[in-house]
AraC-type arabinose-binding/dimerisation domain-containing protein (Sphingobacterium kitahiroshimense), 118 residues
Amino acid sequence: MRTVKFHKTECGVDFLINVLPSDEVKESYLNSGIYDTDYLEIAFIKKGSGHVILNHHKIEISDNSIIFLSPFQKREWKLNPEGLDFVILVFQEDFLNDFFQTSYLPIVYYTFISWNVP
C-alpha cells in the first residue's frame, strides 16, 4: 500500500492547504487502488456516483456528497467517471492550528458569505 505525502512547496511557496479540482486529479481518484495519505482531505462531490472504502467501510457517493478523510485512513475510490465533478481540499493539521489562531477567519468567513450559491 502506498502513502501519498503532502508537498507544501508544490506551488513554489510554503502552503499548508491545497485545492484539487477534478479536471486536474480525476484520473488519480478513478484509478486509486488502496492507499493512505499523511494529510486531511475534504471531498466535495458536486456530481458523481460510486463509493469509497474507508478502513473497510463502504460509503456510497452521490451528487452533493461531502466526505471527510483523516490522515492514514486506508481508502479506495470506486467512482463512475461519467459526469464526475468534484473538488478535494487537502491540508495538514498544522493548517487548522494556524488558521484558528490568526486573523484569517473573518476574511474567509466574509468570502464564503459573499458567494452567490444557488
